[in-house]
Amino acid sequence: MKDMMTAPFLTEMREITANMYRQGWDERNGGNVSRLLDEEEVAPYLDLNNVLRTIPTGFDAKPLAGRYFIVTGTGKYFKNIKDDPETNLGVIRIGADGETAELLWGYRDGGRFTSELPAHLMTHMARLAIDPEHRIVMHCHPTYTLAMTHVHPLDEKSFTHTLWETCSECIVVFPDGVGVLPWMVCGTNDIGRATAEKMKEFRLVVWALHGIYGVGRTMDEAFGLIETVEKGAQVYMLTAGRPHLNTIHDDELVELAKRFDLTYRKDYLDL
Ligand code: 2HA
Ligand code: ZN
Questions:
Q1: Where are the alpha helices (DSSP H) in the chain?
Q2: Which CATH number do you get for residue 133?
């Protein structure tokens, strides 16, 4: 058996969460990340017959039975993951009944996975149905995105359009737009279902007055999506309330879409 501490998926998780922390997106225990793992990725590092304990998932995740995930722990600080991954992360397999998670590694202090597991697993299901290469669900609390939800209307068309107008990168990185949920109680199956429903259409879902979810095939894709929304939201917040002299107009957004051959939400422009 190879040393778990050398597993590439563990290194990647330690590095991405450290980066997210450095961005200021994950104060205290804020944020959570899960990555779907192929059995072949896990098998060299862990005895797959050695279940340390089982933990109820709190809902029916049967379509994911037998699938493996590395997931951040509940109440754990991103700040601490890099130096102590075995306490702050866990590797789980969804049990045959879909209602238990089998712990194979981690949560060493008796802990468990993030309270947002319903939103993560339901989102994994929704995205896998669209893209079999889907792997990552990432949630965090980026400051300017959060600030924007205090002062900007929350409808998806205008929220996305405002971000697209802030800088050229936005429509190029998220031509599919940004889904927005109103404020809801977090950590529940309800917010999980609502998030997964939006994820049928978007790779980004803003939780008003809370944070954001991003998904992707890779950590870079999910991180890059969130990073670009946050850049747009920062520009918006730095300019909001000042005389707005210049913007990227809709006909210019169309030019960008042509130049980068984008499949974009044309219904989000007013042409
Ligand atoms: O505590 O971010 O949404 C982690 C969270 C909850
Ligand atoms: Zn959160």
A1: 8-22, 39-42, 78-81, 85-88, 117-130, 143-151, 156-166, 169-173, 189-198, 219-239, 250-259
A2: 3.40.225.10
